[in-house]
Specification:
The structure is a single chain. The two termini are about 30 Å apart. The protein is globular. Helices cover about 80% and strands about 0% of the residues. Helix 1 (about 5-30) runs antiparallel to helix 2, helix 1 runs antiparallel to helix 8 and helix 7 packs antiparallel against helix 8. It contains 8 helices and no strands. It is mostly helical.
């Protein structure tokens, strides 16, 4: 099979992914509930197909992480507090698995830069949780764990980017910063202040953050020394 033919299907899947993302942004802006209900669960499966078609490794760990990202995305469609809690827990599992993926793919973790990079995010997330939530909320403790996880991921991403600025670490840094913004928007919109711009902006950031993390995984798999054991 020639290169043009072998790239045709992945390119088509990529176009479908970004088309779904664009439609979801518009649908969130105009509150098109039926379109959101139908299309939102298709975004992550499209990314999974895209990854399987383009990766030589086809990591079960990364695919499992995306499955939990799909669960959280579906649970967050509902306005129910129970489903909100399930969504936060599913996202927590996704974040744990994605951190394991990162640890296995990055060349090394430099502990002093990691700690220095993590501390500001721990402070920021503690302030955000204190501002938006109370301890009697069912989602309080899962949210704290998610905050710790995203702060840890931010520490890994930024310390590796600063100490070793290659293409994979650049994609990881971009993805992590986008996920941090997404968490901020989610918590402010759910617990503090609702704004018409938050949901479409979150839909855009969600799709682009997952795309950039996918690019990190592909780049690290192709060039990393540790990609064979995950």
């Amino acid at each position: 099979m020639d290169t043009t033919a072998s790239n045709r299907i992945p390119n088509l899947i990529a176009k479908i992914y970004f088309a779904i993302a664009a439609i979801l942004v518009v649908s969130e802006f105009f509150s098109l509930k039926t379109t959101i209900l139908f299309l939102k669960p298709t975004l992550i499966p499209t990314l999974i197909v895209w990854y399987v078609l383009t990766s030589a490794k086809k990591s079960p760990l990364y695919i499992s992480a995306l499955v939990f990202a799909l669960f959280s995305n579906v649970f967050f469609i509902s306005e129910s507090q129970d489903f909100l809690l399930y969504g936060i827990i599913a996202f927590m599992v996704y974040r744990i698995l994605s951190i394991i993926v990162v640890v296995k793919l990055v060349d090394t973790i430099l502990w002093v830069p990691f700690i220095i990079a993590t501390l500001p995010f721990l402070f920021i997330f503690s302030c955000l949780i204190n501002l938006t939530m109370t301890s009697d909320s069912p989602s309080f403790y899962p949210t704290i764990i998610n905050g710790l996880l995203i702060a840890g991921l931010a520490g890994i991403a930024l310390s590796n980017y600063v100490m070793n600025d290659n293409k994979a670490n650049s994609w990881l840094a971009i993805s992590t910063l986008l996920f941090i913004v997404l968490v901020f928007l989610f918590m402010i919109e759910k617990y503090y202040l609702s704004n018409i711009a938050f949901k479409p902006l979150s839909a855009f950031i969600f799709a682009f953050a997952h795309f950039t993390f996918y690019k990190f995984v592909l780049e690290a798999e192709q060039n990393g020394k540790r990609s064979d054991d995950y």
